[in-house]
Design goal:
Chain B: Its main location: cytoplasm. The structure holds two protein chains of two kinds. Chain A is an alpha/beta fold. In chain A, about 45% of the residues lie in helices and about 10% in strands. Chain A has an eight-stranded mixed sheet with strand order 5-4-3-6-8-7-9-10. A two-stranded antiparallel sheet of chain A has the order 1-2. The chains are: A alpha/beta, B alpha+beta. The structure holds zinc ion (ZN) (2 copies).
Chain lengths: ~350, ~100
């Protein structure tokens, strides 16, 4: 049995306990206690530096029951109490209507509700759009399910927040997610999205709900370790509808790069932050940026509203409504001739040409 | 000299799905020579005996080691600090494999 801990196995901060992990960003070896403390403190510093919240603010945590949002809820509760932010925290969950996947993860969120003593609001695609994801996939096929789900989820979170009269939603997107998005935008030549994809806070033009990512600089690996060491209760099963293939490839590339050079995740985010578009022809950028000093850049004066549903949209009809319209046509056809109609790919093409 | 150890393996973060839903199990690991069994021998044991479908081999293994994105902890310590594949197992060790790749 290893009776004595070797000197080089000691925590580099407290020098008294055994190091259990090595931080990817700086290769520092830490014990369990120091790691938890350092992780939380760094999130607190990000929150302070970026002025993410104000005292008395109501903040909804986009909670999926997965590791990132579960850790986000745990850390936010801890910091809100430790540093007396004075925030009113609420869990906001989306029920996409995916039997066997979302059922189990919502059960996790419900346990989190009592574990973290936060109110919980669940909004469902069914109640908002009269479609569940299962019905959408049955109607339009599995191929573009992520595109559909992404469009609908974005609106659903906003609508859920407004229902609660909350104007700030925070999500568990971590540094790996940010780096992956930068990488994807570069690989697709989607340069217009690089700049906005690394913002810690975004606010759809004129939208009453802003979004922030307090874990922007937190490594996925550290989030999993944090959940493990604090024995947090999270849910981990891949969504029944497999993610987009290209995104998966980019994620694998990123993980292989991280193995060789762990700092690369933060380096990619840094590169994304430094890339600025030449401002020649900004065609209706729909995102406005809330800068760290609190000032705001407005690309257009007013947000347009969707003619159908009234949701903010740069186009006459919003993405969700276009998508739902296509689905309704498919549903009608399916009901008439009983065969599956493949309008999904065409619809996805239409959606890709619209600015978000 | 016995070169046989009994350790506990855990599959977390959704990784249990490729091991028939098993989240933890006792593994009897033997080295194929007179040395002490290592994590490498445990991984061979796992892929030989616990993996349900050979198609999922690449979900767990890449280039003769555990695939990047799967966190390996030996008694709660990251295996990076314990010599990774060459760590010599002791009876009673708990080796945790956690997928970090599943949705957040
Ligand atoms: Zn320490
Ligand atoms: Zn609309």
């Amino acid at each position: 049995m290893p009776s004595a801990v070797k000197i080089n196995a000691l925590c580099e901060l407290c020098h008294c306990r055994k190091a259990v992990m090595r931080r990817p960003k700086n290769l520092q070896k830490l014990c369990k206690e120091c790691f938890i403390h350092v992780f939380e403190t760094e999130i607190h510093r990000t929150i302070q530096r970026e002025h993410l919240f104000y005292r008395g603010e109501s903040v909804a945590i986009g909670a999926s029951g997965g590791k990132d949002s579960t850790v986000l809820a745990a850390v936010m509760k801890t910091l809100n109490e430790r540093y007396d932010y004075g925030l009113h925290l609420i869990l906001l969950s989306i029920d996409e209507g995916i039997v066997g996947y979302r059922d189990d993860s919502l059960a996790t969120v419900k346990r989190n509700q009592s574990q973290y003593e936060m109110p919980l609001e669940i909004v469902s695609y069914k109640q908002l759009y009269d479609w569940t994801m299962d019905e959408i996939v049955a109607c339009s096929g599995i191929k573009s399910s992520c595109t559909y789900c992404g469009v609908l989820r974005r609106q659903a979170l906003d609508r859920g927040a407004l229902k609660l009269e909350v104007h700030h939603v925070i999500t568990g997107h971590n540094a790996d997610d940010m780096a992956e998005t930068v990488l994807l935008n570069i690989l697709r030549g989607d340069t217009a999205r690089i700049e906005q994809s690394v913002n810690i806070t975004t606010n759809s033009q004129g939208s009453p709900v802003k979004r922030s990512k307090p874990f922007k600089y937190a490594y996925e690996k550290e989030i999993v370790l944090y959940a493990h060491y604090r024995k947090l209760d999270y849910f981990s099963t891949e969504c029944t509808y497999a993610p987009e293939a290209f995104r998966g490839t980019a994620r694998t590339l990123l993980k292989n790069l991280e193995l060789v050079r762990p700092s690369c995740i933060l380096d990619i985010i840094h590169s994304g932050e430094q890339l600025k578009l030449k401002h020649k022809r900004r065609n209706a950028s729909s995102e406005m940026e809330v800068r760290s000093n609190g000032s705001v850049s407005l690309p257009n004066k007013d947000g347009n509203r969707c003619e159908r549903c009234g949701y903010l949209s740069t186009n006459r009809i919003c993405k969700a409504c276009i998508l739902l319209e296509g689905l309704e046509i498919n549903r009608a056809k399916v009901q008439i001739d009983g065969t599956s109609v493949d309008g999904a790919a065409k619809l996805t093409k239409t959606l890709e040409h619209l600015a978000f | 000299m016995s070169t046989r150890v009994i350790v506990k393996a855990e599959f977390l973060g959704g990784l249990d799905s490729i091991f028939g839903g098993i989240k933890e199990t006792k593994c009897t690991v033997e080295a194929n020579d007179s040395t002490l069994p290592t994590i490498k021998d445990l991984i061979k044991h796992i892929t030989d005996h616990l993996l349900v479908s050979p198609n999922d081999y690449c979900v767990f293994i890449q280039e003769d080691t555990v695939r990047p994105g799967i966190l390996v902890l030996i008694n709660d310590t990251d295996w990076e600090l314990e010599g990774e594949l060459d760590y010599e197992l002791e009876s009673g060790d708990v080796v945790t494999f956690t997928s970090t790749l599943h949705g957040g």
